Amino acid sequence: SPARxxxxxxAAVATAPGxxxxxxxxxxxxALASMAQALTGKTPEPRTAGxxxxxxxxxxxxxxxxxxxxxxxxxxxxxxxLELQGHGGPxxxxxxxxxxxxxxxxxxxxxxxxxxxxxxxxMDLAQxxxxxxxxxxxxxxxxxxxxxxxxxxxxDEMHRITDALIDLRMLVExxxxxxxxxxxxxxxxxxxxxxxxxxxxLVDVLERARQGALLRTGMNVVLVGRPxxxxxxxxxxxxxxxxxxxxxxxxxxxxxxxETIAIEGIPVHVIDTAGLRETTDPVExxxxxxxxxxxxxxxxxxxxxxxxxxxxxxxxxxxxxLPAGVERITVHNKIDLCGMAAQRSEVExxxxxxxxxxxxxxxxxxxxxLLRVAxxxxxxxxxxxxxxxxxxxxxxxxxxxxxxxAQSAALELFAEELRQAQERLGEITGEFTAxxxxxxxxxxxxIGK
Length: 449
Ligand code: GDP
Ligand code: ZN
Prior knowledge:
Homodimer. Heterotetramer of two MnmE and two MnmG subunits. It is an enzyme of class 3 (hydrolase). The chain is α/β, with parallel strands linked by helices. The chain has helices at about 30-40, 90-100, 110-120, 125-135, 140-150, 155-175, 180-190, 190-215, 230-240, 280-295, 315-320, 365-375, 390-405, 410-430, 435-445; strands at about 10-15, 20-30, 50-55, 60-70, 80-90, 105, 220-225, 260-265, 265-270, 300-305, 325-335, 345, 350-355. It folds into three domains: about 10-125, Gyrase A, domain 2 (2-Layer Sandwich); about 135-215 and about 385-430, tRNA modification GTPase MnmE domain 2 (Four Helix Bundle (Hemerythrin (Met), subunit A)), CATH 1.20.120.430; about 220-380, P-loop containing nucleotide triphosphate hydrolases (Rossmann fold, 3-Layer(aba) Sandwich), CATH 3.40.50. The protein is flat and about 80 Å long. The two termini are about 20 Å apart.
């Protein structure tokens, strides 16, 4: 893999495509002072912003702006890094990038800067992932959580648990040499109590990571109801102040049937099934089919009915066609028209919320109900913005710690389970991560990251 051979010099536009006041090109490699000299005609001063002209091979000015030079190892990647801050137009950025290539750089692959930062020990894998998560965060809460992981809060926690595992392993392995004293020794060392402490910490972090996964990916809500029952009104009301800032995700197109709002910082993807009627129009039909596919991934289905009428046959028909295992909440809207009070009721496990989408009465009850279904009970600061990869590793580590507890009479097996738990945790920070997995993780980053 290229990162393991002698590092070559890579370059990419680091700012988003399109036009902006400023555009930044990032370059990483070895001996970049000479490249800076060729680019600007000046010797760069480390870590000092200098106003320069960026020059082509003939000495003509391509652009003017700021040049930053970070000599290794005190840089994002741990290599020499140059940052060229020019004017943020696509053409001028491409001209500057081409000039860097002329001077020996090659175009960076997606995630290659982060990958180098990881391989050079500037940050661990969980932190590198947090960079990507911060950039992709769609709510304020998700962004805050990503920043905490980025600054190492999650990694530090993994290291503390790992250290406790190592201590315990050393203790047990030392005891293996003195079989006759095993039991007494472990009792004195309170080995099982220490194991239980590790287990409790894993359970706790796993739960906070599960909450974080929710914050990262959000929940899918399908909104079902006849025309005019108040679906659009409810969406507006639920969204409230904090509308999620959601840009288009690569590879998907925006469609009118899907909207993302934020509830307590959790992205809630709401699919309005208004378009789910039978249609013969082929274009409309594609939209309908896509909606049905999204419905299969629903976490909760909101069945909206008019509080004055209760449910009626056409609602039941759509409901019957929806996936069976998914939680359903019946929303009785327009209570203001029949003098009912806002309330939540539960009959034989079927939850109903009575509200007025127009006046907002009872909408907080629905919000709380959605959070309950999602399993959200965290409070901001504790949440770990985890990925599925992290959850799997945490669950596996917990499994080994629990297995160790069950093996406490056979010390060799006990020690082996601890070793495996330690390895699983090491996958999170990247201490025990195979090269091909690294490739997969970093290739999902954008270019310039
Ligand atoms: P949709 O077709 O299901 O999206 O329904 P809309 O949200 O567009 O609402 C249809 C009509 O019902 C609009 O005129 C709304 O103002 C009205 N409406 C929605 N919710 C309420 C409510 O809680 N009370 C009253 N009185 N009217 C409502
Ligand atoms: Zn509507």
